[in-house]
């Protein structure tokens, strides 16, 4: 891509907010209480929606209820710090006329709490895709195709920002240009899944994004 993208599509956890380490701990504790036998379970499920995690790994109704209870208890107290550089980059995109979307496997309840913690954050995005809007989790590209459509963009002309392997696969499958954030996984491990790898949004602008995508 040698031009400014028609849309910018952002995963949430590990991309916009610094929460992946916390979630890894939460899901590791849940898996310890209700063992699945899946190696690196907390990493494997990244990008999946809660209903799909429950149906696939915790099919018993009483266990599902306890998993939801544990998760809700932690989410009610965990912080959702926004990464440095995110707000400035989003404002730069808006000034350049590039629409932006959050594309997350999180549900509406969590998103409401995020907006309450960070007034004005929601207004930086033109649309929000959550678990309530899709039927298939990442690495399926449904979420990114849906987000691009809502913004009136062709996925091939959009850029996806992701940190997880499932998310990067989803962006690729959607046909978008994929930028990996090395916030959750080492940069070297991300290169085969992304067109570009960056450590953060610090100093990034709409214009420098164009230069980055032309590499």
Give a structural overview.
The protein has helices spanning 20-33, 41-44, 50-57, 61-75, 86-95, 108-117, 142-150, 165-174, 187-190, 206-213, and strands spanning 7-10, 100-103, 127-129, 158-162, 177-181, 196-198. With 215 residues, the chain is an alpha/beta fold. A 6-stranded parallel sheet has the order 3-2-1-4-5-6. Strand 4, helix 8 (165-174) and strand 5 form a beta-alpha-beta unit. It starts with 6 loop residues before the first strand and ends with a helix.
Figure out the total of helices. 10
Cα gyration radius (Å):
17 Å
Strand order of the largest sheet: 3-2-1-4-5-6
Instruction: Classify the secondary structure makeup into a structural class.
Output: alpha/beta
β-strand percent reads 5-15%
Total number of beta strands? 6
The CA-CA distance between the termini, in Å, is 8 Å
SSE pattern, N- to C-terminal: EHHHHHEHEHEHEHEH
What's the story with the biggest beta sheet? 6 strands, parallel
Name the overall outline: globular
Provide the low-confidence segments as ranges. none
In which range does the helix fraction lie? 40-55%
Mean pLDDT: 93
In terms of quaternary structure, what is this?
single chain
């Amino acid at each position: 891509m040698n031009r400014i993208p028609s849309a910018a599509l952002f995963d949430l956890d590990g991309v916009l907010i610094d929460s992946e380490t916390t979630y890894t701990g939460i899901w590791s504790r849940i898996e310890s209480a209700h063992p699945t036998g899946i190696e690196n379970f907390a990493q494997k499920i990244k990008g999946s929606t809660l209903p799909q995690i429950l149906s696939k790994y915790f099919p018993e109704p009483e266990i599902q209820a306890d998993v939801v209870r544990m998760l809700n208890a932690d989410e009610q107290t965990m912080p959702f710090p926004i990464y440095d550089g995110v707000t400035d980059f989003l404002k730069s995109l808006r000034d350049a006329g590039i629409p932006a979307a959050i594309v997350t496997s999180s549900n509406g309840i969590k998103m409401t709490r995020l907006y309450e913690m960070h007034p004005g954050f929601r207004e930086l995005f033109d649309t929000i895709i959550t678990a309530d809007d899709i039927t298939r989790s990442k690495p399926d590209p449904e979420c990114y195709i849906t987000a691009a459509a809502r913004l009136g963009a062709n996925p091939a002309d959009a850029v996806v920002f992701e940190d997880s392997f499932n998310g990067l696969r989803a962006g690729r499958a959607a046909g978008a240009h994929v930028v990996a954030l090395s916030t959750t996984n080492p940069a070297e491990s991300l290169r085969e899944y992304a067109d570009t790898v960056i450590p953060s949004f610090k100093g990034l602008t709409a214009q420098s994004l164009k230069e980055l995508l032309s590499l």
